[in-house]
Amino acid sequence: MSDSHIQTQRVTGDDVKRVAELAYLELSAEEETRMQRDLNAILDYVAQLNELDTSSIEPMAQVSDVLGNASSSLRPDTPVPSLPRDAVMACAPETDGSFFKVPKVIER
Amino acid sequence: MTKVDTALPTIHDLRATLSARKAAAVPAAQSCFERIDAEDKTIHAYLALDREGALKRAAEIDAAAANRESLPALAGVPIGIKDVLAQQGLPATAGSKILEGYRPPYTATAVRKLADAGAVLLGKLNCDEFAMGSSNENSAYGPVRNPRATDRVPGGSSGGSAAAVAAGMAVATLGTDTGGSIRQPASFCGVVGVLPTYGRVSRYGLIAFASSLDRIGPFAANVRDAATVLGVIAGHDPLDATSSSEPVPDYTANIDAGVKGLRLGVPAEYFAEGLDPEVRSAIESSIEQLRAAGAEIKPISLPHTRYAVPTYYVIATAEASANLARFDGVRYGYRAPDSNSLSAMYRRSREGGFGPEVKRRIMLGTYVLSAGYYDAYYKKAQQVRRLLANDFLSAFKEVDAILTPTAPTPAFKLGEKVDDPMSMYLADIYTVTASLAGICGISVPSGQSREGLPIGMQIVGKHFDETTIFRVGQAVEKLHTQ
């Protein structure tokens, strides 16, 4: 965990580009440089988790995982009215009143 | 330095006045708006106000009281709402440009319960963008200043919610806490802030940051008021499958029982390197006074504490990257103009709409979930999360509640940590543990620094044992107000 040369290489510039694409973010060149620096600093810090042997530990995804009684429950499957369509459409940047409008989906 | 003694009544006093059939709701709301007009240009706690709606509602409450009608639990109490919660008719920006102008067509369950209980809802409160931050400097609408010292941050992410109570601009407020975002600003602003047990308050209508961690809770000027508000917003909600059916007790019934006979744990790991000496001495002195008041103070160990911040930043950002995928310029909020394809519109809307910290967390979360890294980071963090939760479950076999500082320092200066994400993340070092474990906590004012900055004590309790932390909190409050 202590070799700083290895640590600073944890996230490369190409990694930043690839992850930005996955996250649908269009970062400027300046943002990419800064992001690479910040992600490396944070992940170096996160690397201390490797000091712990967790091979026999079940992952905890939800708080109910550690409560004996699963506190969550499913509600009866009864149909109830949704929000009125016009109230929802009123929030959208572009609609035809019934549907959301977006730029063309299929790129050539 | 802004004056902080507020002329506002407590919830209890306000109710007593109404019960005597005297007007209380309109005067209380008016005092809040007077303070807002006088101070909020500097403090910047509110992002939106509903003056007309609030005064109309307050007048209805005063009229009902005059007519001897029965009064609901929060009749006439002026309350502000963090801007990550939906309140139909008002904006909900989550402190982000990407939601500028958005007015949700529905109301969050916690907010609806306040309204149903007669609260006078004043407006929406500033916060870090999508509740991501520890200083309120990440709001796209400008920072909030700490009413106790306006060159200082109020803490975050619920900085507006804490500052509004501290400055007398609301009797109570709602905030949200994912890694410390209620407790840390409560500590910085010298008010009471409550992290309810995960599942205690419905999250329906909360703009999600990290769904396995997000909680809604109250701020107030005193412990009893905070307990009263929690009693109203707690309970099962069919609209949130993670909300619990555990019965909601009367949190104020046993609040004055004192600490005699309670076993209170003091974890060594929270008093180690990095703790400001003035915070240490303030908290240690309060602990000694609790001992003198009859509590059994027990040294305990929570051995995985040092792994909590890295665990938190993996889990919270992973969940955030998924939750924030919904902001794509299609259904609500900002859309970048003139994009020639759908994917370009997504990318450009998100690039233009999100601020730097939100992008950083989306990137980190996407990275730790991406192919090849999931096991090394995300699964690993979930495993350590269980170790952290087990630390608390073991400790609670021996103690009834745990006492710690809420934050390692008093409020820091604006701009001090803004360029260093890691140092900002460490402001949450004592609060992320209870967040990960799902247990409840409260921050109660517990002295101040030589400069007069507030210092908060955190009291952490078992799952669904808010009753005990309110009881201990009330005892701590008495130490400092007698």
Q: Would you give an account of this structure?
A:
The complex is a heterodimer of chains A (108) and B (482). With 108 residues, chain A is mainly α. Chain A has a domain at 1-53: Glu-tRNAGln amidotransferase C subunit, N-terminal domain (Histone, subunit A), CATH 1.10.20.60. Chain A has 4 helices and no strands. Chain A has helices at residues 4-8, 13-22, 29-46, 85-89. Chain A is flat, with a radius of gyration of 23 Å. Residues 1-8 of chain A have low confidence and may be disordered. Chain B is α/β, with parallel strands linked by helices. Chain B contains 15 helices and 11 strands. An 11-stranded mixed beta sheet of chain B has the order 1-3-2-4-6-5-10-11-9-7-8, with helices on both faces. In chain B, helix 2 runs antiparallel to helix 3 (51-66) and helix 9 (308-323) crosses helix 12 (374-395). The two termini of chain B are 24 Å apart. The model of chain B has no long low-confidence stretch (mean pLDDT 96). The interface between A and B is large, with 57 and 74 residues.
List keywords for this structure.
heterodimer, A: 108 residues, mainly alpha, Histone, subunit A, flat, B: 482 residues, alpha/beta, Amidase signature (AS) enzymes, 15 helices, 11 strands, 38% helix
- Detail the poorly predicted runs of chain B: none
Average pLDDT rating of chain A: 87
CATH superfamily of the domain at 1-53 in chain A: Glu-tRNAGln amidotransferase C subunit, N-terminal domain
The CATH architecture name of the domain at 1-53 in chain A reads Orthogonal Bundle
* Terminal CA distance of chain B: 24 Å
Structural class based on helices, strands and sheet pairing of chain A: mainly alpha
Pair of chains with the largest interface and how many residues each contributes: A-B, 57 and 74 residues
Please trace the helix and strand order of chain B, writing H or E for each element: HHEHEHEHEHEEHEHEHHHHEHHEEH
| Count of helix runs of chain A | 4
Q: Tell me what the CATH architecture of the domain at 11-261 and 441-481 in chain B is.
A: Alpha-Beta Complex
Report the strand count of chain A: 0
Most strands sheet of chain B: 11 strands, mixed
* N-to-C CA distance of chain A: 47 Å
Bin the helical content of chain B: 25-40%
Q: Helix-strand pattern of chain A, N to C? A: HHHH
DSSP strand count of chain B: 11
- Low-pLDDT regions of chain A: 1-8
**Residue fraction in strands of chain B:** 5-15%
For CATH, the homologous superfamily of the domain at 11-261 and 441-481 in chain B is named as Amidase signature (AS) domain
Shape of chain B: globular
